[in-house]
Design brief:
By secondary structure, the protein is α+β, with helices and mostly antiparallel strands. The chain is built from 17 helices and 19 strands. It has helices at residues 28-50, 70-76, 80-83, 94-110, 158-180, 200-205, 209-212, 226-239, 285-317, 321-366, 372-381, 383-413, 427-437, 439-442, 467-491, 526-529, 549-560, and strands spanning 3-11, 17-26, 54-59, 65-68, 114-121, 131-141, 147-156, 184-189, 194-197, 243-251, 257-268, 274-283, 423-425, 452-456, 463-465, 500-508, 512-519, 564-569, 575-582. Helix 9 runs parallel beside helix 12, helix 10 runs antiparallel to helix 12 (383-413) and helix 13 packs across helix 15. The termini are far apart. The relative contact order is 0.05.
Length: 588
């Protein structure tokens, strides 16, 4: 306990002390309060001293500094002893000090906070380095409501502004490269909606950028190429890796189609999830036209061969084999010379190109830091893409020329040209490969029962078919079944707890095979079932379906394989797709 003792003497008339009067006061609580106040003041001073921004306190009467922290001393470049008792005029040029004083008086007069968002200063002290400050002046009011002190906080934002300027310059440089690139650059959501398109998009396709921002890319793509696009972007999303080499037809604004190739990279967030796409589009219409021209020449030569074979039969019947032999030999000779010229020069051109590319790579490895003009040209041309694409161009041209040589050889030997795409394949392997592609959707998901696949395979022979196209049919049907089951699970519309897909195959006595793919989902209403195979018909949300999957599947089965594709379904009873195709194709 702490006490305050006070005593007074009591005297008689003669002045003699006859008694003492004392007062004892318990001051424990007051002393504790004083100690707490002192601790709080020390803590506050420590906080102010440790703050990374400059803190000054000025006397309201003469604007002299009465307090400053370490950051304040570093800002002006002198110690606290040199700051305290002085004013802004001792540390800054008069014009800047006048400005600070004016704002000080404004804060004290208005009794309100005054902020200076950005001010360039040139301190006289320290190293005199120019700094950029963000300043806040706050009057401290006493108990009579009058300003007693002025709290000044000066935050040095020089580095922040320099970083911001560098970022702005970098962004401007990048934007300039993008806007002046020969290719079109795009950004797209996982649903296929464009979120960015570079200016060259307009030059390439004729559309204004505003016409496709926020729109799906699907409407631009040739219907036959949409499945390839979907598979391509699906692969980017699933692997999380850059994919290249997509080649599709795109409709221009004038209604014509051109060919493009696309390289696409995934954008991955901090959780390592693919959240969007970005890539480049290059117009390869000229290259495709060259390939088409070579193909057309091959077709014309094949037609010439057929005509010559017909002529041969007629001449044999009329006993003119000698004349026919001379005719065919002459034609073959005349065709063979220019073809050999083309084929031989292609090899040289390819060799020269490889030498030039090797030379470029040597320059890059030995001179990794070229001058700015060369570096900008490399980025504008997308040199890596050119190095990758040029060998493909020569390869396709060489393949076309080689094809013509094969036809010439056929002319010489009077052999029939018959290289059909049809192949005898194991249907079950195609189904299994499709299930492998969809495996990620069949895996167990949180709070959902796993979708089971029940297989009942019959003893099938090898089936003559277009294997790639048939596998696309399997993928479309199974993906739709998974969509139906997943949507029902999410919406709680499934009437049971065991979603499943069943696949059954068997051979029919009529030399046909049948593949049945069914699910136990919610089923398909009759009015929808009747339109399932119509082009562009879909019940999915915008951006989630093109309405072409089943339409293309129907064409593949009926037109290319001479088979049938039908759907049997009713509400709450699932859906079954039945595919029938012949074991061997009659029209080869």
């Amino acid at each position: 306990m702490q006490i305050d003792l006070r005593a007074d003497a009591i005297k008689d008339r003669t002045g003699k002390i006859i008694a003492l009067v004392g007062v004892h006061t318990d001051i424990t609580e007051r002393k504790q309060a004083e100690a707490q106040l002192q601790t709080a003041q020390q803590f506050m001073c420590s906080v102010i001293e440790a703050m990374p921004i400059a803190v000054f306190v000025k006397d309201a009467t003469d604007l002299r500094f009465v307090l400053c922290n370490r950051a304040a001393q570093e800002l002006v470049g002198v110690s606290a002893d040199e700051i305290l008792g002085n004013t802004d005029y001792d540390f800054f040029p008069q014009q800047e000090a006048d400005f600070f004083t004016q704002r000080d008086e404004e804060a004290l007069t208005s009794k309100k906070v005054v902020e200076i968002p950005e001010e360039i200063v040139h301190p006289n002290s320290g190293n005199g380095e120019t700094r950029i400050l963000r300043i806040r002046k706050t009057p401290i009011i006493d108990s009579q409501g009058q300003p007693k002190y002025l709290l000044v906080i000066r935050e040095d934002i020089t580095e922040q502004k320099e970083i911001q300027a560098a970022l702005t310059a970098s962004e401007a440089k990048f934007r300039s490269l993008v806007e002046n690139a020969n290719d079109a650059i795009y950004a797209m959501t996982l649903d296929g909606i464009f979120s960015y398109l570079s200016p060259n998009f307009t030059h390439m396709f004729g559309y204004e950028i505003s016409e496709f921002l926020g729109q799906s890319f699907v409407s631009m793509i040739h219907p036959e190429d949409v499945p390839n696009c979907m598979e391509f972007f699906h692969k980017v999303a699933q692997t999380g890796q850059k994919q290249a080499g997509l080649e599709v037809r795109v409709q221009r604004k004038d209604g014509t189609y051109g060919w493009i190739t696309s390289n696409t990279s995934p954008i991955i967030d901090i959780n390592k999830q693919v959240v969007s796409f970005q890539g480049i589009i290059r117009d390869i219409t000229t290259r495709k036209q060259a390939e088409a021209l070579l193909q057309q020449q091959a077709i014309e030569l094949a037609q010439t061969l057929k005509q010559l074979q017909t002529t041969q039969s007629q001449l044999i019947q009329s006993e003119k084999m000698s004349s026919l032999g001379q005719l065919v030999a002459g034609v073959a000779h005349e065709i063979n010379n220019p073809v050999n010229f083309i084929y031989g020069n292609l090899a040289h051109a390819n060799s020269y190109t490889h030498q030039l590319l090797n030379l470029i790579q040597l320059y890059q490895s030995n001179y990794p830091n070229p001058v700015l003009e060369i570096q900008q040209e490399i980025e504008a041309l997308d040199l890596d893409f050119l190095i990758d694409d040029i060998p493909k161009l020569f390869s396709s041209m060489e393949a076309g020329a080689g094809r013509i040589r094969q036809i010439v050889d056929s002319l010489r030997t009077f052999s029939r040209l018959d290289e059909a795409e049809l192949k005898a394949v194991d249907i079950h392997k195609g189904i299994e490969s499709t299930l492998m592609i969809l495996d990620h959707r069949l895996k167990l998901k949180p709070n959902q029962p796993q979708i089971q696949v029940i297989k009942d395979y019959g003893n099938l022979p090898l089936v003559e078919c277009y294997a790639g196209s048939l596998n696309q049919v399997f993928l479309n049907i199974m993906a739709n079944a998974l969509d139906a089951l997943e949507d029902s699970l999410i919406q709680g519309k499934l009437t049971h707890n065991q979603p499943q897909i069943s696949i059954c195959t068997q051979q029919l006595p009529s030399k046909q095979i049948v593949i049945r793919i069914s699910d136990n989902g919610p089923g398909i209403p009759e009015q929808v079932r009747q339109k399932l195979f119509d082009p562009f018909f879909t019940t999915k949300a915008v951006g989630k379906g093109t309405g072409l999957g089943l339409s293309i599947s129907y064409q593949i089965i009926t037109e290319r394989h001479g088979g049938s594709l039908q759907c049997i379904s009713s509400l709450n009873e699932g859906a079954e797709f039945i595919i029938e195709i012949p074991v061997a194709q009659m029209n080869k």
